[in-house]
Amino acid sequence: MTLAVGIYSLASKHSLKDLGFRPDTLKESLLWNGALSVFFVFLMYALYMANLIREPTVPSWTLFYIFYVLVSSPSQEFIYRSVIFSEMNRAGIKNPLLQVGLSAVTYCFLHIIYKDWITLAVTFFMGIVWGVIYYRRPNFWGVATSHAIVGVVSIATGII
User: Fold this and answer.
1) What is the pTM of this model?
2) How far apart are CA 126 and CA 103, in angstroms?
3) Residue 59 CB: number of other CB atoms within 10 A?
């Protein structure tokens, strides 16, 4: 899917800047997403240590986390933040609530395959948080890094 969306983006002549591959927002994006990641990692660890989270179902595939960090997280952020925000901007949809909301809903529905309401709730919430940061500091690298960190810890602790 990411390859198809990438080809579409090239054919549609989306610029790298429009897709969030830009140096001018990198520092602030990394700071905001880094702070978010630290907060949620500590929160998930505290919930895990207090036995307030279900038992983790860590994937048996030993290379899963490498795949998740290098392929899955960046792919999701490219599709659900970079391209969707760029398409909405191009279509004249400038309302932040609409941009963040549509991005979060589509990102959430990607996770419907897990058939788990907790996963849907968490991904919708995180879609909103990452969407707000992306709206204010549009940068692919910041949100993709945060997604990878928060995602790995949420899987390891049993939240997702």
Assistant:
1) 0.92
2) 11
3) 12
The shares of helix, strand and coil residues in the chain, as percent rounded to the nearest 5, are 75, 0, 25
Reading the block at residue 70, the tokens are 């290098």
Q: How far is the C-alpha of 137 from the C-alpha of 1, rounded, in Å?
A: 25
Q: What is the pLDDT of residues 82-137, one digit of tens each?
A: 999 999 999 999 999 999 999 999 999 999 988 888 889 999 999 999 999 999 99
* Tally of domains within the chain: 1
**Residue 51 domain boundaries:** 2-157
Closest CA to 83 of 151, 27, 15: 15
Distances (CA, A) of 47 to 35, 117, 141: 18, 18, 28
Phi-psi region of 95 (alpha: psi -120 to 50; beta: other; left: phi over 0): beta
Q: In 3D, which of 155, 147, 160, 159 has the Cα closest to residue 70?
A: 147
Contact 135, 99 (CB under 8 A): yes
Amino acid in position 9: S
Q: Is 22 exposed, middle or buried (0-12, 13-18, 19+ CB in 10 A)?
A: middle
